[in-house]
């Protein structure tokens, strides 16, 4: 299934939502971070949710962050997305040992844990970002996000997320959805939707069946008239750059920079999200030190 993210409505706008196929995105994350199967599943589900929730940022919204920490062996899962479909993400312990609920069925909840919370940060380009948190209940991520939407945003929702990992650790398929009902939804439509979601086969099974994300939507929304209102390509893409790393070094300040130059002469900084290493030699470090000393920098 090719990577695609669609925005849709159903039942004459009484239901709205997103569907995503993001196999390529998770495979890229797996290769960069050398993820174990269960880490691929945990980060993959979070990347899918982040890609979809980034599309919910109101106009001008700049950045969406999802942080999950349940005290489990994987540590913190951190994903950041933008409205253009780019998402980056990491986990503290990418090599966490895989545990299984059944043969082939990864136990994501066991490595994420439930002793903690999920945090959503919406940077809307205003002074203070919106920050919402909710305690984790299962560590399975989709269920936790459903609870988050209900209790923190008072928005009844259904979230499905699934990542299928092949025996050779490649990502076989990844996808998901977020469905939300509007306040004016009719009783009949609501109960039809609840019934449909209850009898839904496991999402992993639908992912193997569907040729593309639109077919996935039709399988999930069986019996509903659906309209796709937007299509885009989600991708694992980091926004780090040499310039941003320079800014980070300068912001360390004079004392720290002098120490680095004195001790090592040069410096290498690695981006945690994409593991790109940026090397700065002694001359470049001296230039950055001069910049840190220039008066204009005090306001940055
Ligand atoms: Zn990066």
Automatic annotation (TrEMBL):
Q: Which UniProt keywords apply?
A: Chaperone, Cytoplasm, Disulfide bond, Redox-active center, Zinc
One GO molecular function term of this record is: unfolded protein binding
Q: In the UniProt record, which is one GO cellular component term?
A: cytoplasm
Q: What modifications follow translation?
A: Under oxidizing conditions two disulfide bonds are formed involving the reactive cysteines. Under reducing conditions zinc is bound to the reactive cysteines and the protein is inactive.
Top-level taxonomic group: Bacteria
Q: What subcellular compartments does it reside in?
A: Cytoplasm
- Give the protein family: Belongs to the HSP33 family.
Matching entries from NCBIfam families are given as: PRK00114.1
Report the protein name in the record: 33 kDa chaperonin
Q: Please name the source species.
A: Anoxynatronum buryatiense
Q: Which gene encodes it?
A: hslO
């Amino acid at each position: 299934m090719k990577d695609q993210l669609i925005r849709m409505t159903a039942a004459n706008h009484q239901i709205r939502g997103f569907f995503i196929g993001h196999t390529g995105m998770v495979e890229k994350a797996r290769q960069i971070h050398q993820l174990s199967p269960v880490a691929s599943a945990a980060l993959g589900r979070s990347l899918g949710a982040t890609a979809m929730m980034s599309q919910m940022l109101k106009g001008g919204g700049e950045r969406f962050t999802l942080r999950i920490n349940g005290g489990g062996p994987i540590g913190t899962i951190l994903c950041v997305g933008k409205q253009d479909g780019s998402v980056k993400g990491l986990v503290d312990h990418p090599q966490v040992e895989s545990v299984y609920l059944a043969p082939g069925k990864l136990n994501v909840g066991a490595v994420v844990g439930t002793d903690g919370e999920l945090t959503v940060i919406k940077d809307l380009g205003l002074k203070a970002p919106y920050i919402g948190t909710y305690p984790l209940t299962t560590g399975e991520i989709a269920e936790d996000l459903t609870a988050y939407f209900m209790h923190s945003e008072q928005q009844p929702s259904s979230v499905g997320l699934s990542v299928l990992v092949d025996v050779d650790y490649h990502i076989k398929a990844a996808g998901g959805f977020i469905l939300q009902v509007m306040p004016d939804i009719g009783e009949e439509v609501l109960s039809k939707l609840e019934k449909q979601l209850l009898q839904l086969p496991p999402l992993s099974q639908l992912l193997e069946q569907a040729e593309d994300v639109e077919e996935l939507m039709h399988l999930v929304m069986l019996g509903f008239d659906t309209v796709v209102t937007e299509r885009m390509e989600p991708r694992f893409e980091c926004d780090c750059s040499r310039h941003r790393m320079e800014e980070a070094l300068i912001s360390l300040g004079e004392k720290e920079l002098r120490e680095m130059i004195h001790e090592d002469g040069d410096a290498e900084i690695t981006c945690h999200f994409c593991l790109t290493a940026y090397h700065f030699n002694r001359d470049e470090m001296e230039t950055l030190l001069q910049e840190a000393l220039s008066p204009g920098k005090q306001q940055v």
